[in-house]
Amino acid sequence: MMTESATLPAVEPVDRAAADAALEAHFRDLLLEHARMGRSVPEGRDGKVVWVTPEQIFARYGLDENGKPRPA
């Protein structure tokens, strides 16, 4: 009995830099959404879970404590 070999479709190589940038932008948007709702979020640091406050999230992205851009 002879088996037929299946031909797989060509696959484009993954642009890892673009994928990383897209994930980073998505996580930034998610974190800022939680912060705007006044929610802290858990984050792993040195093997422990710590809670990051909305003010800390805003500061991480250069925003003031209310999530607004800082004056120039």
Question: Could you characterize what this model shows?
Answer:
The chain is an alpha+beta fold. It has a domain of 34 residues. 39% of the residues lie in helices and 14% in strands. Strands 1-2 form a two-stranded antiparallel ribbon. β1 and β2 form a beta hairpin. α1 runs antiparallel to α2. The longest helix is centred in the middle third of the chain and has 21 residues. It is elongated and about 70 Å long. The mean pLDDT is 92.
- Count of DSSP helices? 2
Percentage of β-strand residues: 5-15%
Overall, the morphology is: elongated
Biggest sheet, open or closed, and with what strands and sense? 2 strands, antiparallel
- The count of β-strands is 2
What topology, given as strand order, has the largest sheet? 1-2
Which runs of at least 5 residues are low in confidence (pLDDT < 50)?
A: none
Structural class by SSE content = alpha+beta
Please compute the radius of gyration using only Cα atoms.
21 Å
Give, in order, the helices and strands.
HEEH
Q: Kindly, what is the distance between the CA atoms of the first and last residues, rounded to a whole number of angstroms?
A: 75 Å
Helix content: 25-40%
Q: Determine the mean pLDDT.
A: 92
Describe the SSE topology.
Layout: H1 16-36, E1 41-45, E2 48-52, H2 54-60
Antiparallel strand pairs: 1-2
Helix pairs in contact: 1-2
